[in-house]
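Quick one:
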Amino acid sequence: MVLLVTGALVVVLGLFCGMVLTLGPLGLVPWTPELALWVLFPLLCVLGFVFFAMAGKTAQVRTFTFAVSCLLLLLALASVAGVVLSAASVIDAAGSLMPLWYVLAVAGVLGAVGVAASRPAA
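Output:
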């Protein structure tokens, strides 16, 4: 039970890192993405999942994987929307768009792999 809760909280922290990396450069939050967030975003998402998977039952892990993967795909969509809106001069980026590209790549890959892996066995 402890590993389930710890894993879920660690994943939430990882998703928070991704959110700051996405919203910070767009000026939508008052926070600045530091280098640590670039490292912690994928690390915490994967580590939290591993903790959860070690203690969870198959159905729990499949549901958790699907939910987290959907959140990661939403984060990737928010990142690409930020890039497109900034490139179209709809919004002015408060900084470099590199964090958005990074979140798009990491969240897109992790989310897509997670959704594909959480499908029920045929």
